[in-house]
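Good morning N.,

You mentioned wanting to compare the apo and holo forms, so I went ahead and generated the holo version with adenosine-5'-triphosphate. This is what I fed in:
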Amino acid sequence: QEADLVELVEQAADAFRVTHADHPLTVTPGPDSLKLRLDPQRIRQVLDNLLTNAAMHTPPGTQVSVAVSIASGAAVVRIADAGPGIPPADRERVFDRFYRVDKARSRDRGGSGLGLAVAQSLVRAHGGRIDLTSEPGATVFTVTIPLAVGRDV
Ligand code: ATP
Ligand code: MG
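and this is what came out, ligand included:
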């Protein structure tokens, strides 16, 4: 089915502002709408997972932002936070099932370590991918969903 990715991001942002009021969220202006073939519930789940991580794994007050854009035949959603970041050695492994960077602290926060593994498989099921860059003060998860796969070819 077709769904509007911009609308999904706005809905996820509205929900985030209610559930994570201690983290200021900026939605960066982009296209008014971006309709493509995707499963809205599954992509909403991906957005919620990434936004929840940006709040759960950073101190209260940490700025979070989300942006939608189109880049070389793909829809791109960028979810960024100004938190402490993910050390280089952990960056590949955070997508592994049950992997958490700081097990004791992550357990306090109630995470199982499944969120990113689930998000990655959902995005891959759409023919896309999730990329990660991180340094202290700037962690960025980028969800890329190709338009060619999302549309009838
Ligand atoms: P779950 O999502 O299952 O509730 P979780 O959030 O711990 O639990 P993942 O979403 O898979 O699991 O994330 C794996 C780990 O990656 C986290 O435990 C955390 O250590 C690290 N991580 C994820 N997102 C961020 C982020 N934005 N900033 C810092 N660390 C992060
Ligand atoms: Mg998570």
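The two ends are 14 Å apart (CA to CA).

Happy to go through it together on a call whenever suits you.

Best,
F.
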